[in-house]
Amino acid sequence: MAASSNSSLSGSSVSSDPEDYQPPIWKSYLYQLQQEAPRPKRITCPQEMESRPKYYGREFHGLISREQADELLAGTEGAYLIRESQRQPGTYTLALRFGGQTLNYRLFYDGKHFVGEKRFESVHDLVTDGLITLYIETKAAEYIAKMTTNPIYQHLGYTSLLRDKITHRLNRTRSEPKKVTFQQDEKISPSPLSRRTTLKDGPEKHCNYEKIHNFKVHTFRGPHWCEYCANFMWGLIAQGVRCSDCGLNVHKQCSKLVPSDCQPDLRRIKKVFSCDLTTLVKAHNTPRPMVLDMCIREIEHRGLKSEGLYRVSGFTEHIEDVRLSFDRDGEKADISANIYPDINIIAGALKLYLRDLPIPVITYDVYSRFIQAAKITDPDSRLEAVHDGLLQLPPAHYETLRYLMTHLKRVTMYEKDNYMNSENLGIVFGPTLMRPPDLNTLTTLNDMRYQKLIVQLLIEHEDILF
Ligand SMILES: [Zn+2]
Ligand SMILES: [Zn+2]
């Protein structure tokens, strides 16, 4: 059964041409097994037990021995009861008949019932799920071990197999260029001091960012099939995992094999601020977070000469207002001078955006590398160490940093008007772009001057980001 199911699929091929789209062949073997699994049979206690906890029903038999429990279950597959442990009174054991023997599980309750990871509303549900799992994993152990070897996922080359999702994607691919093209932004007024009149295009490799899926354990209502291996997702609850960014549904074991090609669905990304950087740019199909582009555009247009730019703070309530409008309207947010005449509001919103990122622009992974680099005294070796660190950044983070540093460099070119040099900006942006992975107050204080140094160095040598 298992073999035939597998081979029927490996022979199928799905063309990339949308007209030839074939719906996947969902494999029903595990579904059939779930239907065959023994059903729970509650063995009730004839007398009322005084010691019965209120969260158990008549399946509770009090202090009886293993042997007595065994007898009561009478060799019936799926029969179960609860007994109090003789060795450890006050703890409870679920005795369950399966595969011709009595299995004993330590049973817990904390508002929900559980013996392992999964938590259930009722003991009956726990037993139903347990029997399905035991039955499928005993009967189809070999099949399950091999089920990921012929994924249908790669044939389609996309995160999702459900037809509507596919159609949605194909429509989008048709109407939009596949790769993000970096457009020269004409709205940035050319600066006479700038060596570059507009921000330069980044290398193309920065457009196709990889993004890992954001899998979370999920309970599916009704039967569901894995979109990676096409097999049924068995069990009563927590049958698999779902990506909360793109909606991909897979087995827990399959989730480890799915490539990092998550294409977040805009409908699932509810916020702009506090959203993971790569997730946001993938969802909006932009090389950098649009907050960055839009705020920088405003600042370069009307704020470069503003005294204390990025140091003087704008009204917190107004900054909060900008955040809300980005969260609500995305790229349609109006942050023009008509609404926010004070440029410090826009500068404040940009800093808030960077500070609120769940993973900072200079990621936790490479944080200590940069701190170590900052401690090097020889300028050339230090710059080299920083450069090495930059190469470890995820592409979307790298591109964000590159764009921001080019902008900050331009800010320093108006120092005689705005009194902001690379050191001042380093103080402001150091802790905004870099946060230690462990929030130890002492480390944070110690690291601040190194964070400043790194940002100062990046502004002065923004060329190393190109
Ligand atoms: Zn995903
Ligand atoms: Zn699977």
UniProtKB/TrEMBL annotation:
UniProt cross-references to InterPro entries, sorted A to Z: C1-like_sf, Chimaerin_SH2, CHN1/CHN2, DAG/PE-bd, PKC_DAG/PE, Rho-type_GAP, Rho_GTPase_activation_prot, RhoGAP_chimaerin
Low complexity composition-biased segments: 1-16
Gene3D superfamilies, alphabetized: 3.30.60.20, Rho GTPase activation protein (1.10.555.10), SH2 domain (3.30.505.10)
Entry keyword annotation includes Repeat: no
Keywords of the record: Acetylation, GTPase activation, Metal-binding, Neurogenesis, Phosphoprotein, SH2 domain, Zinc, Zinc-finger
Domain of life: Eukaryota
Parts of the chain that traverse the membrane: none
Protein name: Chimaerin
Source organism of this protein record: Danio rerio
Gene: chn2
